[in-house]
């Protein structure tokens, strides 16, 4: 293993990253959410999403990916007023990378927006967001889903 495999580079997502971002999301859910959601919810989490779903999000221009070597290991996506997605592979969770991506996501969410920044946190990530200043507003279901069973989330604000 060389040093480049441990060096993390943050960069704007670009066309062609959709497959890797799709895979990060799928693997993150399977590994990091499995203690908090049912097997059926995990199995249906991705719903009708495909790599093309993520290509369309990338085209909006606010997604940032984290690379180690030639592998995307995490990403964050935002829109004005909301950090919409933040996923990491399990082997980099707890390394500080989530915090770095969240800071970028918050900064991007503040563009053209005044007021609180929202996030729909998975149950397993609630503590992470609390540690970074978010507070729970209410519980509900994920609104950014594409098919699949309802996923319980925590509506949070910063």
Features:
158 residues; alpha+beta; seven-stranded mixed β-sheet; 32% helix; 28% strand; globular
Extended strand count: 7
Unreliably modeled segments: none
How do the helices and strands follow one another from N- to C-terminus? EHHHEEEHEHEE
Question: Which of globular, elongated, flat, extended, rod-shaped describes the shape?
Answer: globular
Describe the structure.
This protein is of the alpha+beta class and about 160 residues long. It is built from 5 helices and 7 strands; from the N terminus they run E-H-H-H-E-E-E-H-E-H-E-E. The protein has helices at about 20-30, 40-45, 50-60, 95-110, 125-130, and strands at about 10, 65-70, 70-80, 80-90, 120, 135-140, 150-155. The chain has a 7-stranded mixed β-sheet, sandwiched between helices. A hairpin with a 2-residue loop joins strand 2 and strand 3. The protein is globular and about 40 Å long. The N and C termini lie far apart (about 40 Å). The mean pLDDT is about 90.
